[in-house]
Amino acid sequence: MTTRIVPSVLPADFSRLGEEVRLLEKAGVDRIQWDVMDGRFVPNLTMGPDVIASVRPLVTLPFEAHLMVADPDRLLPRWLDAGCGMVIVHAEAAGHLHRTLGDIRERGGSAGVALNPATPPSAVEHVLDLVDLVLVMTVNPGFGGQRYLPSMAAKIRRVRELVDATGRDIEVEVDGGISPDTIGSASAAGARTFCAGSALFADRDAIGERVAELRRLAAEARR
Ligand code: DX5
């Protein structure tokens, strides 16, 4: 099963975002995650679709929009139009999650559903036929640089069981506090896609080595 390293651009230098996404592509990452925050669903405000669209032509990497927003239906088409092939909505925010996920797919996107730490895996049990990815938050959303929540290991294991039972290749992604010290726990629990921000941007001169190190540690934890 493929290990994917997906950087969050939350810690990026937004005064030179184009250079930052090019740096990530050169570092050998698999996808870029855009942490979209609206100041309502989470106590922080980040970028809109026009920012994503502005850097879309600079790299060929796939983009995923992680919508930490109170009403994910509102701008849904804009994220896809901006070049995000994957749109991830929070189970806690979508008033009609089944319909929203179906809408993403009908518009040609890949659909992901995210779970905050307190939300049980059962929240996605009846939409697994509509998703390509389940994102297990390993921090409370809103900020980068937070501590990984080890208590999420049991939840990752349960999501892995639910996904495997479908027989479909649904990605299990984790997001929050992923570093060389924590990726092993998430990988051993069943995650195969790892979103990391601070751990990758800590040393821009060695970002490629850090990507390779995370990939290696994730694989070693599965042996
Ligand atoms: C939380 C964000 C962060 C970010 C990664 O809302 O989603 O988890 O992507 O941040 P780090 O890797 O710095 O914890």
Task: Walk me through what this model shows.
- With 223 residues, the protein is α/β, with parallel strands linked by helices.
- It is built from eight helices and eight strands.
- The protein has a single domain, classed as Aldolase class I (TIM Barrel, Alpha-Beta Barrel).
- GO terms for molecular function: D-ribulose-phosphate 3-epimerase activity; metal ion binding.
Summary tags:
223 residues, alpha/beta, TIM Barrel, eight-stranded parallel β-sheet, 8 strands, 18% strand, globular, binds D-xylitol-5-phosphate, metal-binding
Number of helices: 8
Q: Roughly what is the average pLDDT, rounded to an integer?
A: 97
**For the record, what CATH class applies?**
Alpha Beta
| Principal-axis shape | globular
How much of the sequence lies in strands comes to 15-25%
Distinct ligands: D-xylitol-5-phosphate
CATH topology: TIM Barrel
How many domains would you count in the coordinates?
Answer: 1
Structural class: alpha/beta
Gyration radius, rounded = 16 Å
Helix content percent band = 25-40%
CATH architect. name: Alpha-Beta Barrel
